[in-house]
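Field log, afternoon session.

UNIT: design team B
ACTIVITY: writing a sequence onto a fixed backbone
BACKBONE:
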């Protein structure tokens, strides 16, 4: 067995160059000391499937039949949702754009077709994307968190150092 840092009188080399992590052992804790190639490693989908999802808090049930606009918005939101991704905490949205609808404007700069001024970014933009190059889903960021903030700008709590000018006469200006 290799000398440990916990020994009464470790050698100079051990006390100088050996790490405390070295005492933990070389095997993975998940494999119970068995070599990694001799044990079964769970798939990522199985690991993520065991993830505990926090349930949403109970909210009052509201009959939305009196609000058709609200119902149509909720229906559109459900239609835009893509399949849940196990590694993401939010539900993605469908990327509704198709490759045949993408159009780039013509380059109107003088000398744009001159090969002397060609750049790599222009080469990328010459060709329209194919359908398999477009994403199927995306994760938009909403402003739902900041919607709950109070309306208006924050109060200025800094020190005001400008002089207060009088509208009547300059003798009434206050410089404090």
């Amino acid at each position: 067995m290799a000398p440990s840092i916990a020994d009464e009188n470790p050698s100079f080399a051990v006390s100088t160059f050996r790490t405390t992590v070295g005492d933990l052992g070389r095997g993975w804790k998940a494999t119970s000391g068995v070599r990694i190639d001799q044990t079964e490693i769970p798939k990522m989908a199985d690991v993520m499937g065991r993830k505990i999802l926090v349930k949403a808090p109970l909210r009052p049930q509201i009959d939305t039949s009196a609000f058709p606009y609200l119902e149509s918005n909720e229906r559109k939101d459900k239609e835009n949702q893509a399949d849940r991704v196990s590694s993401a905490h939010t539900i993605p949205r469908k990327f509704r754009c198709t490759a045949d609808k993408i159009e780039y404007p013509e380059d109107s700069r003088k000398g744009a077709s001159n090969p002397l001024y060609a750049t790599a970014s222009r080469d990328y933009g010459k060709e329209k994307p194919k359908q398999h190059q477009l994403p199927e889903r995306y994760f938009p960021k909403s402003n739902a968190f900041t919607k709950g903030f109070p309306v208006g700008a924050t109060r200025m709590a800094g020190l005001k150092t400008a002089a207060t000018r009088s509208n009547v006469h300059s003798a009434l200006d206050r410089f404090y």
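LOG NOTE: Helices lie at 12-17, 44-49, 68-80, 120-126, 144-147.
NEXT ACTIVITY: expression trials, pending approval
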